[in-house]
Design goal:
Radius of gyration: 17 Å
Distance between the termini: 46 Å
Largest sheet: 8 strands, mixed
CATH architecture: 3-Layer(aba) Sandwich
CATH class: Alpha Beta
Strand content: 25-35%
Number of strands: 8
Mean pLDDT: 91
CATH superfamily: Vaccinia Virus protein VP39
Amino acid sequence: MPLAALSSLVERWRLKRKEDWEFRWQSAKWAALFREPAHQAKCLEYWVRYRHLDDIRALCPLGPESSILDVGCGISTVLHFLPGRRFGVDPLGDRYKAIYRYPEGIDVRRAYAESLPFPDRSFDVVFCSNCIDHVTDPVKAISEIERVLRPGGRLVLTCEVFDEDPGKRNAGHPHGLTAEKLRGLVASFEPVAAWDSPWIGLRAYVLGEPATSQREHILLVAKR
């Protein structure tokens, strides 16, 4: 087998392993939990408390006519808590729809961050929440987000950050980012606001577990 073909085969195997890892976690540990209205309310509380959703709403053009995209939306997408024309993309979008019914008005599609299935300048706001360290190519993913944003459109980029790059942590996290590297990914954007919060997973928060000593950064930036 030619080397290029072998490399492609190995990459597809790695990608499938990563996606299967993520789906097993979501289906076994999260989907049923999130279906409960009380748990969805806790998730909204989490977004306000740790991810500054009220501040984001005040700084972004979010209304009934807003076009919003969540990249790497997962099951518990922030789109549940926002108005407007709402779209989500996830490599597991089709598989998630088989185990979770998204509310009417949320259009979830199977797609990768590195190749978004939308025309240029389609969205007013894009969220990318603890997804960028899951993708294969973070630089390409941010480039695609920039492409589909309208001029002046906002990106809300959230990611767990480390003092030193930990490298690949597991099958679902092929990257680890420092605060400097996270900011570097959006260097072509105009900074609007930034927040620093304790890192705690949504599931952990819903189950009443305390925040960890680890940090996550929330960057709000605008397309120039």
